[in-house]
Design goal:
This protein has about 140 residues and is an all-alpha fold. The chain folds into 2 domains: about 1-75, no CATH class; about 80-139. It has 8 helices and no strands. It has helices spanning about 1-10, 15-25, 25-45, 50-65, 70-95, 100-105, 105-120, 125-139. Helix 3 (about 25-45) crosses helix 4 (about 50-65). The protein starts with a helix and ends with a helix.
Length: about 140
């Protein structure tokens, strides 16, 4: 990591002027170039046109979700970590012969599961407060 950071520093210091010039490129020019590189990257992985369709579909989905007020980072994180979580859960259930008690038998696992449940429930608190306020105003 240290060697990589030093090399990155050596490379980026002389190129600061170039990065500033890239920031001055107008959006109407930059957007098609970004889209072109994304299409080339999606196609080059497997050589399938279907990958381009999937990329465009997720792009439209991301645009719609952003317009609706959803953040993109948690969705991308879930998309990346989801398969690893599924494999780990499958391994745990195989080890425990299908018993879900394996997730609460150990104190650390139980504490993590409890913290997760509390965090998920805490996301509902603003919704419940808003609902109570609306019901109180109607009465």
């Amino acid at each position: 990591m240290y060697v990589g950071n030093v090399i990155l520093l050596i490379l980026n210091l002389p190129l600061i002027g170039l990065w500033v010039k890239i920031l001055k490129v107008p959006y109407k020019t930059l957007f098609p170039l970004i889209l072109l590189f994304c299409v080339i990257g999606a196609y080059s992985v497997e050589g399938s046109v279907m990958d381009i369709g999937v990329m465009l579909g997720f792009g439209v989905l991301g645009y719609v979700l952003r317009k609706m007020g959803f953040e993109g980072a948690p969705l991308v994180l879930a998309f990346i970590l989801g398969p690893m979580l599924e494999n780990s859960m499958r391994q745990s259930l195989i080890i425990s012969h299908g018993s879900f008690l394996i997730f609460v038998q150990r104190p650390i696992a139980a504490a993590c599961l409890l913290a997760t449940v509390l965090l998920l429930l805490s996301a509902l608190v603003p919704f419940i407060r808003k609902r109570r306020k609306l019901l109180a105003e109607e009465s």
